Amino acid sequence: MRRIFYLTCALVVFGSLYPFHFVLRDSPAGAIQAFRASLDFVLNRGFLRDVLVNLLVYIPVGFFFVLDERPERPAWLRMLRAALAGAALSLSMECLQYYFPPRMPSLIDVLDNTLSAAAGGLVGIAFSARARQAFDALAGLGLARPSSALFLAIVWIAALFSPGDWAGFRTLVKLHAFLAAPAPAPGLVFVAFVQWIGIGALAAAIAGWSRAPLLLLACGLALPFRFLVPGQHPQLFEFAAAAVAIGCWFAVPVSRRLSAGVIAFLLAAGLVVDELRPWHFVNRSGGFEWVPFASMLETQWTYALLILFRKAAVYGTTVWAIARAGIGITGSAVLVSVLLASLEAAQIFLPGRTAETTDPVLALVLGLILLRLDHKYGADPGAATPLAKRRAAPSPGAAPGSASLRPPSHSPAPGRKIWTGGRRSDF
Description:
Elements: H1 2-17, H2 29-38, H3 45-57, H4 59-67, H5 75-97, H6 107-140, H7 148-161, H8 171-179, H9 186-207, H10 212-221, H11 236-250, H12 252-255, H13 260-275, E1 288-289, H14 294-297, H15 301-327, H16 329-346, E2 355-356, H17 358-377, E3 417-419, E4 424-426
Helix pairs in contact: 1-4, 1-5, 3-6, 4-5, 4-6, 5-6, 7-9, 7-15, 9-10, 9-11, 9-13, 9-15, 10-11, 13-15, 13-16, 15-16, 15-17, 16-17
């Protein structure tokens, strides 16, 4: 988890110093005056919003710091070290912000970030103490275990049900817009359909092939609850695509053809179709944003977080599916990143689209996370074989006519930890 912790710190540094307008000050004493001035604040909605953001942004810092700590250390010491690490990082960023206007240093932000890191450390301690027991129980029932597929499933839940606007629920307005919506374009239906096929593949890797259709059906039945989530705007084509995808997973003749290669191809095709909307090119080229995540940092943070979850879910599932088709996480992440870079370049000639480097960089970051999860917990059940049930070649000594449906075993590298469904083993 150390690399993910370093990656989290790098993202914090990136967001803290954006838009990178460096100004050389005459004296650093002005930073001390800015710190003093930050204590004279006005308690209003904008101030409370900034406090909430700062209380959330350092939670991953403390969380991943604690997960990389030695488990034999006392819990209070691990949480204290996480809080001190968050305080050191926050104080460094606030001091540097004095040289990056319009950012200004603030002692309130340092306090909020320190509390945020401490809270993340507390969550990390509880996770390391309780999560393994919970996963042991689930794995004993054959339901789930830590894996990259489980991580992506959680990201999908966040993308579909996280609030994007706390201004109001507007449930009746969303229902009226849903019922009055015109017939959706076939391209939108196809994109949503292949995404739900990918969600079904994740379900198969998490809970097993036989339980995947029921789990996918449960996800589909939860879609109407999105009308109750502020900022979520369900569309008719999403319900239609989910229904068709669920039907495909329940239809045995169809689901048997959903191999890892087919699912990877469908997700890649859906990515191309979605990135090239509205499929109308113009002769005049638009601009290109070279700074990653710049558009998100300039957007309201609730909407930006929702967009990030959605992109991470789609790109991460595509990377995962292509990797499970036999390319591997590293090759798949590079392939998807190159594909997204090409599509972003094409978006220069698409009206209404913002061409930027965010998507290719995000694909590489997701590839790193999936790679670390595979290394720590072992690959999920769909790692090396098609997700569909196919008859494997009989093993030597097997009875004539018999065949094993189990995927081939893989011997992990020396010292690699794998999930064994109730215990951990070091090889």
